[in-house]
Design a protein that fits this description.
Layout lengths: L1 H8 L4 H13 L11 H9 L2 E6 L15 E2 L2 E4 L2 H12 L3 E6 L7 E6 L2 E4 L5 H17 L2 E12 H14 L4 E8 L16 E8 L17 E3 L2 E6 L17 E3 L4 E3 L26 H6 L3 E2 L6 E2 L4 H9 L5 E2 L2 E2 L15 E3 L4 E5 L15 E2 L14 E2 L2 H12 L10 H11 L5 E4 L6 H13 L4 E6 L12 H15 L16 E8 L4 H4 L2 H13 L2 E2 L6 E7 L2 E6 L4 H14 L3 E6 L2 H10 L5 E4 H6 L7
Parallel strand pairs: 3-23, 3-24, 4-7, 4-22, 13-18, 20-21, 22-23, 27-28, 28-29
Antiparallel strand pairs: 1-24, 2-25, 5-6, 7-9, 8-9, 10-11, 11-19, 12-13, 14-19, 15-18, 16-17, 26-27
Helix pairs in contact: 4-5, 5-6, 10-11, 11-12
The structure holds S-adenosylmethionine.
Length: about 625
């Protein structure tokens, strides 16, 4: 790393060197440091343009889908740095949920940096891993919607490093983390632990993000007041008279002048003005405040007694003919201030708190230990919406069932992805996984769509994993896309998925073009797909001819015109009438000429520079 850096410095002029030195000397911060090369980083970002190429034979569309129907789901083959650069140009601010399961930097040659596997003894192993992820996460950050979230799986060993990196890339966006039981046993002889059985899922989100929570059961909200419904909840606390003498008092209903005695085993949960010392302040409301706000419910029909004398009261106490809470009598011989109850109206029912439904927050947000291992199913806290998820073993089995052999090491279990996505996605979201591996995320998206009638879309980026030993290897095509194909078609007696449920995908490869050569190297198919993705977020089979239709926005047809000549001008002039559109938006290499030519035919059209549209968002162009 340092030799390469030195040779790069040779090419900088004095002013550039001074700037770098000042930056270096003044950059002091708290946090994570790793060896990186800012020059190389910037250069990599702007190196060239990334253009999508649709590979129809590796894409999937069910037979009933039209030949030229559009694809909403994408599998993108290649280094995800390039895929993310493409997505930055096409999907900035459009992705609601990103899930990734990056290589964990285990030292087991599980990831590639600058075309070589990084092993345990690599001197720069941690820095290279951090820099590798930094470059990808900074690109991914710009893809999130204002209420978007990114969830990242990581093992225990690398969690601290990754979390500090995430803090750097997503400042102020940390939500928390989930713990996932990744295996049931194991025997790590390396350290003092018998086995490290858990992993983490780090959660960082933009401000507007909320987990879906769980639809609360409203069956208890049986009472009505006007058009508001409420349920009754207990007014007592689990403290007894000795522990909380101040909240042992009779509750008085001023409307009926009825008094309700307190349970000595469970005193009231709220303070009373009558029991507060002079000048004493409390946090929150007193019982009298709640009564005034009409938040306390008093029984409508109940037994009411007035004991005219103490003898009559004591006699009732002896017969246990007094208000009760379960088996506990609320009036008893040695109770404090027993004489208070003589001559007063005593209610035999119990008051309660009115909890109105509209006062509820989005209930049942997940708790951080919410992912419940299958073998501990019975420990799931009732009513806490705790999904039961499998271990890596389930992930391996899922792949084995689908691909007939161990096509991929350590995939995540679909149940984990489903649990995470069911809490973080809404039914119409786009979900991105740019370390898709075997495609577990895509499978989970389809399963969720089928469960809640959703139309979530997936974008999965996967490398080929080709290397000098296996130059023909194509993990993206042969595992990720193949798995999705089998899942969509239905396997092992399971039903498949319709296109509406996400049962289709476009397989894209990426071509890289030097920005200086863009005019010669970008062909019509590149331009068409890139614009379709940018404008409509979809891939479609390009129509033949020099004028291609991208789609429609309200009453406006969006077109690409590759050649400006008499034939295309005639075709464009006839377009509004043929399509029933009121307006045209046309991308072309010669927008001025086309505008003039159409004006000569009395037609106004919005003509845009095709080259500007293709370059925008790439090659450092904002
Ligand atoms: C831990 S696996 C992800 C497994 C996945 N969650 C699953 O369930 O199948 C990480 C994946 O990232 C891929 N990968 C590593 N570097 C990559 C890169 N630069 N671009 C794209 N994928 C990459 C590896 O090929 C590997 O398949």
């Amino acid at each position: 790393m340092s030799e390469g850096l030195l040779s790069q410095l040779d090419h900088l002029n004095e002013q550039q060197l001074r700037r770098l030195l000042v930056e270096h000397l003044t950059k002091q911060k708290l946090g994570l440091y790793w060896e990186s090369n800012a020059i190389e980083r910037d250069a990599a970002l702007n190196a060239n343009l990334v253009l999508p190429r649709l590979v129809r034979e590796w894409s999937y569309r069910p037979q009933e889908m039209d030949e030229d129907a559009i694809h909403r789901n994408l599998i993108i083959e290649g280094d995800n740095f390039d895929s993310l650069r493409l997505l930055k140009a096409t999907h900035a601010g459009k992705i609601r949920v990103i899930y990734i399961d990056p290589p964990y930097n285990t030292g087991n040659r599980d990831w590639v940096y600058n075309d070589h596997y990084v092993g345990a003894n690599d001197r720069w192993r941690h820095s290279q891993w951090l820099e590798f992820l930094y470059r990808r996460l900074t690109l991914a950050r710009d893809l999130l919607t204002p209420d978007g979230v990114i969830l990242v799986s990581i093992n225990d060993e690398n969690r601290a490093r990754l979390e500090l990196l995430m803090d750097e890339v997503f400042p102020g966006m940390r939500v928390g983390s989930f713990v996932w039981r990744s295996r049931t046993g194991g025997n790590d002889t390396k350290g003092a632990f018998h086995s490290t059985n858990h992993e983490h899922v780090l959660v960082y989100a933009n401000e507007g993000f909320r987990f879906s929570g769980d639809e609360k059961s409203y069956s208890m909200y049986k009472f009505q007041e006007g058009d508001r419904i409420y349920r009754l909840s207990d007014l007592t606390s689990p403290k007894d008279l000795r522990e909380r003498p101040n909240t042992y008092y009779p509750i008085y209903d001023p409307t009926t002048q009825i008094y309700y005695p307190c349970n000595p085993q469970r005193v009231w949960a709220y303070a009373s003005k009558g029991r507060m010392k002079d000048g004493q302040k409390i946090r929150g409301d007193t019982i009298e405040d709640f009564i005034e706000k009409k938040l306390i419910w008093f029984p409508h029909s109940q037994r009411i007694e007035v004991f005219a004398t103490k003898e009559k009261l004591l006699d009732a106490i002896k017969r246990k003919d007094v208000p009760m809470s379960g088996n506990t009598p609320l009036l008893y011989e040695d109770m404090p201030e027993i004489d208070f109850w003589i001559g007063r109206k005593i209610g035999y029912g119990r008051p309660a708190f009115k909890r109105f439904k509209e006062g509820l927050k989005n209930e049942n947000q997940p708790i951080s230990s919410w992912l419940t291992p299958k073998q501990e199913e019975e420990t799931a806290i009732d009513g806490m919406n705790m999904p039961v998820v499998g271990t890596t073993e389930e992930g391996s089995k899922a792949i084995k069932d689908l691909m007939d052999d161990k096509a991929f090491p350590y995939p995540k279990p679909p149940s984990l992805l489903k649990a995470l996505l069911s809490q973080s996605t809404r039914p119409t979201d786009i979900i991105l996984d740019f370390f898709a591996g075997s495609g577990t995320t895509g499978q989970a998206v389809l399963e969720l769509n089928a469960e809640d009638n959703g139309s979530r879309r997936f974008i999965m980026c996967s490398s080929t994993e080709a290397n000098s030993k296996e130059p023909e290897k194509n993990l993206c095509r042969d595992v990720c896309a193949e798995r999705m194909r089998r899942v969509i078609q239905g396997y092992g007696g399971r039903p498949g998925y319709t296109p509406e449920q996400g049962g289709e995908f476009a397989y894209l490869q990426l071509d890289k073009v030097n920005a200086a050569d863009a005019h010669f190297e970008i062909d019509a198919a590149h331009a068409f797909q890139l614009l379709a993705l940018k404008r409509f977020g979809v891939v479609c089979t390009a129509t033949e001819g020099a004028v291609q239709r991208l789609g429609r926005v309200e009453d406006c047809e969006v077109l690409v015109c590759h050649e400006v000549n008499a034939k295309t001008i005639a075709a464009l002039a006839a377009w509004p009438q043929q399509s029933g559109a009121a307006r045209l938006a046309i991308y072309t290499m010669r927008p001025e000429t086309l505008r003039e030519q159409l004006a000569l035919r009395g037609m106004e059209a919005n003509c845009y520079s095709l080259m500007d549209a293709l370059m925008r968002g790439q090659g450092g162009i904002a």
